[in-house]
Amino acid sequence: MKFGISYNMAYFGVDPERIMAFARHAEDSGFESLYLPEHIALYPGATVGTMELSPSLPYADPLDCLSFVAAATERIQLGTGVLLLPYHHPVVLAKRLATIDVLSKGRMRLLTVGLGSLPGEARAVGVDFSTRGRRADEAIDVMRLLWAGGEDGVSFAGEFFAFDDLCQFPKPVGVTHLPIHIGGSSRAAASRAGRRGDGYFPGGALGPDERALQLDLARSTAVEAGRSPEALEYTRWGSIDMSAEGVEALAAQGVTRLVVNPTAPDLDRQRDQMSAFAQRFALLDTSLSHGR
């Protein structure tokens, strides 16, 4: 089991000193990865499920923040949970992600993408809300094509994006493409993970039967697509105070990575929570044994 931690900008703020201290303590504690969320724009009345989002929540750009984190750390992997893929142009996004990967020496490896659930957010960036699934599929194909392409250029002709003989450098460090994990709590997301994803990261509001069904769907869809279901990483949200028995139960369900959220409002208590979790699961010993 790998262990990541999420910094929720909406509630902890975007003070640079606090983000830097949080990331460094996570790294020093032995966490594998740091995840940041995304909302591009909010508006009065915006809701996710039954929860209304305050329009003043300070969602900073996660990729800009991860660049900042990369400069302040040495080992921790960089992730998003989730990046709203249909609202980004994939040619620009591919360049941004590869740049972060190069500058971080190969740490931009836990990109998790989702579709977004706010119609007003889609309208604000000129995206038809009903097409966002198809746009996301196409965007994944475009980014992988660009990352793998050479000096002769690559071409693409799709429903939403098209170009001829395009070259994009620099390339991600040591890989033909950056891993792309699929986030979401729907069967469509599970199928997308199987068809195109390097991992599946479902949301929290699912019952055990639906979770099991979606994981089976992701794996069976991978087989149908000629891909290895065993290569599909399975990430889940967890609580910062969960027990060893709870983690073992998730591992038995096939979970390969757990991402936890500190619940304390102030940095000192968040550090205490991270340290206690790290000690409970010997994260520092594990990270050192893997050369981190």
Distance between the termini: 16 Å
Proportion of residues in β-strands: 15-25%
- Number of strand segments: 13
CATH class: Alpha Beta
Rg on CA atoms, Å: 19 Å
- Side by side, the strands of the main sheet go 5-2-1-13-12-11-10-7-6
- Chain-averaged pLDDT: 96
Assembly type: single chain
Runs with pLDDT <50, length 5+?
Answer: none
Say which CATH homologous superfamily is assigned: Luciferase-like domain
The CATH topology is: TIM Barrel
How does the overall form come out from the CA principal axes?
globular
SS summary, helix count: 11
Largest sheet: 9 strands, parallel
The CATH architecture is Alpha-Beta Barrel
Helix- and strand-based class? alpha/beta
Short summary:
The protein is α/β, with parallel strands linked by helices and 292 residues long.
Descriptive tags:
alpha/beta; TIM Barrel; nine-stranded parallel sheet; two-stranded antiparallel sheet; 11 helices; globular
Model description:
- With about 290 residues, the chain is α/β, with parallel strands linked by helices.
- The chain has a single domain, classed as TIM Barrel (Alpha-Beta Barrel).
- Helices cover about 40% and strands about 20% of the residues.
- The protein has eleven helices and 13 strands.
- It has a nine-stranded parallel beta sheet with strand order 5-2-1-13-12-11-10-7-6, covered by helices on one side. A two-stranded antiparallel sheet has the order 3-4.
- Helix 3 runs parallel beside helix 4 and helix 7 (about 185-195) runs parallel beside helix 8.
- The mean pLDDT is about 95.
